[in-house]
Protein backbone atom coordinates (compact mmCIF):
# COMPACT_ATOMS: atom_id res chain seq x y z
CA UNK A 1 0.00 0.00 0.00
CA UNK A 2 1.45 3.35 -1.00
CA UNK A 3 0.25 6.91 -0.53
CA UNK A 4 0.93 9.81 -2.89
CA UNK A 5 -0.45 13.26 -3.60
CA UNK A 6 -1.76 12.91 -7.14
CA UNK A 7 -4.47 13.86 -9.59
CA UNK A 8 -6.76 11.13 -11.02
CA UNK A 9 -5.90 11.84 -14.64
CA UNK A 10 -2.26 10.87 -13.99
CA UNK A 11 -3.08 7.40 -12.65
CA UNK A 12 -6.48 6.42 -14.09
CA UNK A 13 -4.99 4.69 -17.14
CA UNK A 14 -2.72 2.62 -14.88
CA UNK A 15 -5.50 0.76 -13.09
CA UNK A 16 -4.24 -2.81 -13.26
CA UNK A 17 -6.35 -5.95 -13.04
CA UNK A 18 -4.42 -6.91 -9.89
CA UNK A 19 -4.92 -3.56 -8.14
CA UNK A 20 -7.46 -1.52 -6.24
CA UNK A 21 -7.15 2.24 -6.35
CA UNK A 22 -8.36 4.02 -3.23
CA UNK A 23 -8.61 7.80 -3.27
CA UNK A 24 -8.75 9.90 -0.14
CA UNK A 25 -10.08 13.44 -0.49
CA UNK A 26 -11.41 16.37 1.47
CA UNK A 27 -15.21 16.40 1.47
CA UNK A 28 -18.12 18.64 2.35
CA UNK A 29 -21.60 17.08 2.45
CA UNK A 30 -22.95 20.01 0.43
CA UNK A 31 -20.99 18.58 -2.52
CA UNK A 32 -23.24 15.52 -2.72
CA UNK A 33 -21.98 13.10 -5.35
CA UNK A 34 -20.00 15.73 -7.26
CA UNK A 35 -16.53 14.50 -6.13
CA UNK A 36 -17.49 10.89 -6.92
CA UNK A 37 -18.71 11.80 -10.42
CA UNK A 38 -15.54 13.81 -11.07
CA UNK A 39 -13.38 10.85 -10.03
CA UNK A 40 -15.34 8.36 -12.14
CA UNK A 41 -15.19 10.76 -15.07
CA UNK A 42 -11.39 10.85 -14.81
CA UNK A 43 -11.27 7.05 -15.05
CA UNK A 44 -13.79 6.99 -17.91
CA UNK A 45 -12.19 9.88 -19.77
CA UNK A 46 -15.41 11.89 -19.54
CA UNK A 47 -16.53 15.14 -17.91
CA UNK A 48 -18.30 14.60 -14.59
CA UNK A 49 -21.65 15.71 -16.00
CA UNK A 50 -21.51 12.91 -18.59
CA UNK A 51 -21.17 10.11 -16.02
CA UNK A 52 -24.36 8.06 -15.69
CA UNK A 53 -25.10 5.99 -12.60
CA UNK A 54 -27.77 3.45 -11.77
CA UNK A 55 -28.65 1.84 -8.44
CA UNK A 56 -29.04 -1.81 -7.49
CA UNK A 57 -32.10 -3.16 -5.69
CA UNK A 58 -30.32 -2.44 -2.40
CA UNK A 59 -29.33 1.10 -3.36
CA UNK A 60 -25.70 0.58 -4.32
CA UNK A 61 -24.69 2.94 -7.18
CA UNK A 62 -22.92 1.50 -10.22
CA UNK A 63 -22.00 2.65 -13.71
CA UNK A 64 -24.79 2.67 -16.27
CA UNK A 65 -24.45 0.16 -19.17
CA UNK A 66 -23.63 3.06 -21.49
CA UNK A 67 -20.16 3.17 -19.92
CA UNK A 68 -18.99 -0.18 -21.31
CA UNK A 69 -20.74 -2.05 -18.51
CA UNK A 70 -18.25 -3.95 -16.39
CA UNK A 71 -15.26 -1.71 -17.19
CA UNK A 72 -14.69 -1.23 -13.47
CA UNK A 73 -16.61 -1.18 -10.21
CA UNK A 74 -16.45 1.40 -7.47
CA UNK A 75 -17.64 2.23 -3.99
CA UNK A 76 -17.37 5.28 -1.82
CA UNK A 77 -17.84 6.45 1.75
CA UNK A 78 -17.69 9.81 3.50
CA UNK A 79 -17.59 10.94 7.11
CA UNK A 80 -17.37 14.52 8.32
CA UNK A 81 -14.60 16.21 6.30
CA UNK A 82 -13.17 13.23 4.41
CA UNK A 83 -14.20 10.75 1.72
CA UNK A 84 -12.79 7.53 0.27
CA UNK A 85 -13.41 6.21 -3.25
CA UNK A 86 -12.36 2.66 -4.24
CA UNK A 87 -12.08 1.61 -7.89
CA UNK A 88 -11.21 -1.83 -9.30
CA UNK A 89 -11.62 -4.08 -12.33
CA UNK A 90 -13.06 -7.56 -12.08
CA UNK A 91 -14.23 -7.34 -8.47
CA UNK A 92 -16.70 -5.23 -6.50
CA UNK A 93 -14.92 -3.30 -3.73
CA UNK A 94 -16.55 -2.13 -0.52
CA UNK A 95 -15.05 0.75 1.44
CA UNK A 96 -16.10 2.44 4.66
CA UNK A 97 -14.80 5.48 6.53
CA UNK A 98 -15.55 6.91 9.97
CA UNK A 99 -14.10 9.88 11.84
CA UNK A 100 -13.01 8.96 15.35
CA UNK A 101 -15.32 10.32 18.01
CA UNK A 102 -16.73 9.37 21.39
CA UNK A 103 -19.35 6.60 21.32
CA UNK A 104 -20.99 6.47 24.76
CA UNK A 105 -23.50 3.89 23.43
CA UNK A 106 -20.89 1.64 21.83
CA UNK A 107 -21.53 -1.27 24.21
CA UNK A 108 -25.35 -1.24 23.97
CA UNK A 109 -25.10 -1.07 20.17
CA UNK A 110 -22.54 -3.88 20.07
CA UNK A 111 -24.61 -6.10 22.38
CA UNK A 112 -27.65 -5.64 20.17
CA UNK A 113 -26.12 -5.77 16.69
CA UNK A 114 -22.70 -7.47 16.93
CA UNK A 115 -21.83 -11.06 17.75
CA UNK A 116 -21.31 -12.10 21.40
CA UNK A 117 -17.52 -12.48 21.04
CA UNK A 118 -17.21 -9.04 19.46
CA UNK A 119 -19.24 -7.30 22.15
CA UNK A 120 -17.38 -9.22 24.88
CA UNK A 121 -14.03 -8.00 23.53
CA UNK A 122 -15.26 -4.40 23.63
CA UNK A 123 -16.32 -4.80 27.26
CA UNK A 124 -12.70 -5.42 28.30
CA UNK A 125 -11.49 -2.04 26.98
CA UNK A 126 -11.33 1.42 28.50
CA UNK A 127 -13.68 4.07 27.10
CA UNK A 128 -11.02 5.60 24.86
CA UNK A 129 -9.85 2.24 23.54
CA UNK A 130 -13.44 1.12 23.05
CA UNK A 131 -14.34 4.08 20.83
CA UNK A 132 -11.64 3.19 18.30
CA UNK A 133 -12.21 -0.57 18.53
CA UNK A 134 -15.94 -0.11 18.00
CA UNK A 135 -15.38 1.94 14.85
CA UNK A 136 -12.76 -0.53 13.59
CA UNK A 137 -15.34 -3.31 13.87
CA UNK A 138 -18.09 -1.14 12.39
CA UNK A 139 -16.09 -0.04 9.33
CA UNK A 140 -14.88 -3.59 8.67
CA UNK A 141 -18.44 -4.93 8.75
CA UNK A 142 -19.73 -2.07 6.60
CA UNK A 143 -16.99 -2.57 4.01
CA UNK A 144 -17.92 -6.25 3.65
CA UNK A 145 -21.64 -5.51 3.40
CA UNK A 146 -21.02 -2.83 0.78
CA UNK A 147 -18.86 -5.20 -1.27
CA UNK A 148 -21.66 -7.75 -0.94
CA UNK A 149 -24.03 -5.14 -2.35
CA UNK A 150 -26.11 -5.08 0.81
CA UNK A 151 -26.67 -2.49 3.49
CA UNK A 152 -27.11 -2.63 7.23
CA UNK A 153 -30.46 -4.33 6.70
CA UNK A 154 -28.53 -7.54 5.95
CA UNK A 155 -27.68 -7.66 9.66
CA UNK A 156 -24.36 -6.87 11.34
CA UNK A 157 -24.72 -10.03 13.43
CA UNK A 158 -24.57 -12.19 10.29
CA UNK A 159 -20.84 -11.60 9.89
CA UNK A 160 -18.01 -11.67 12.39
CA UNK A 161 -14.65 -9.92 12.38
CA UNK A 162 -11.57 -11.30 14.12
CA UNK A 163 -7.83 -10.72 14.01
CA UNK A 164 -5.86 -7.70 15.11
CA UNK A 165 -7.21 -4.16 14.62
CA UNK A 166 -4.56 -3.41 12.00
CA UNK A 167 -5.15 -6.76 10.26
CA UNK A 168 -8.85 -7.68 10.49
CA UNK A 169 -10.08 -11.08 9.32
CA UNK A 170 -13.56 -11.99 8.13
CA UNK A 171 -14.35 -14.97 10.33
CA UNK A 172 -17.92 -15.62 9.21
CA UNK A 173 -20.32 -14.32 6.56
CA UNK A 174 -23.68 -16.02 6.58
CA UNK A 175 -24.47 -17.65 3.25
CA UNK A 176 -20.92 -17.16 1.92
CA UNK A 177 -17.44 -18.67 2.20
CA UNK A 178 -15.57 -16.21 4.41
CA UNK A 179 -12.15 -17.46 3.27
CA UNK A 180 -12.92 -16.24 -0.24
CA UNK A 181 -12.93 -12.65 0.99
CA UNK A 182 -10.21 -10.06 1.56
CA UNK A 183 -10.46 -7.47 4.33
CA UNK A 184 -7.93 -4.71 4.94
CA UNK A 185 -7.53 -1.81 7.33
CA UNK A 186 -6.61 1.41 5.50
CA UNK A 187 -3.76 3.44 6.98
CA UNK A 188 -5.21 6.95 7.23
CA UNK A 189 -4.45 9.11 10.30
CA UNK A 190 -5.20 9.36 14.01
CA UNK A 191 -8.58 10.96 13.32
CA UNK A 192 -10.08 8.51 10.81
CA UNK A 193 -10.71 4.77 10.55
CA UNK A 194 -11.19 3.07 7.19
CA UNK A 195 -11.62 -0.46 5.83
CA UNK A 196 -11.64 -2.07 2.37
CA UNK A 197 -13.18 -5.44 1.44
CA UNK A 198 -13.79 -7.54 -1.66
CA UNK A 199 -14.55 -11.09 -2.70
CA UNK A 200 -11.65 -12.65 -4.58
CA UNK A 201 -7.92 -13.12 -4.41
CA UNK A 202 -5.32 -10.76 -2.95
CA UNK A 203 -4.64 -7.50 -4.76
CA UNK A 204 -2.28 -4.60 -4.47
CA UNK A 205 -3.94 -1.64 -2.77
CA UNK A 206 -2.86 1.78 -4.03
CA UNK A 207 -3.92 4.51 -1.63
CA UNK A 208 -3.80 7.93 -3.24
CA UNK A 209 -4.39 11.36 -1.76
CA UNK A 210 -6.22 13.72 -4.11
CA UNK A 211 -3.95 16.66 -4.84
CA UNK A 212 -5.42 20.10 -4.19
CA UNK A 213 -6.08 22.29 -7.19
CA UNK A 214 -3.28 24.81 -7.77
Automatic annotation (TrEMBL):
GO MF term (any one): transferase activity
Pfam families the UniProt entry points to: ACPS
Residue ranges crossing the lipid bilayer per the database entry: none
Keyword entries, A-Z: Transferase
Keyword Transferase: yes
Domain of life of the source: Bacteria
InterPro entries: 4-PPantetheinyl_Trfase_dom, 4-PPantetheinyl_Trfase_dom_sf, P-Pant_transferase_sf
Keyword Transmembrane annotated: no
Occurrences of domain 4'-phosphopantetheinyl transferase (ranges): 94-193
PANTHER family: L-AMINOADIPATE-SEMIALDEHYDE DEHYDROGENASE-PHOSPHOPANTETHEINYL TRANSFERASE, PHOSPHOPANTETHEINE TRANSFERASE
Family: Belongs to the P-Pant transferase superfamily. Gsp/Sfp/HetI/AcpT family.
Identification of the protein by name: 4'-phosphopantetheinyl transferase family protein
Amino acid sequence: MTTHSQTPAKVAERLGDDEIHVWRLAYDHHQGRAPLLAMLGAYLGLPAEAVQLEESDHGRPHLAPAHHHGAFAFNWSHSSDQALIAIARGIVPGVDLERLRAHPRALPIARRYFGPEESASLETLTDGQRDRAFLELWTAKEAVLKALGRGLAFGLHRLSIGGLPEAPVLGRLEGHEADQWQLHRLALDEHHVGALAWQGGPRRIRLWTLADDP
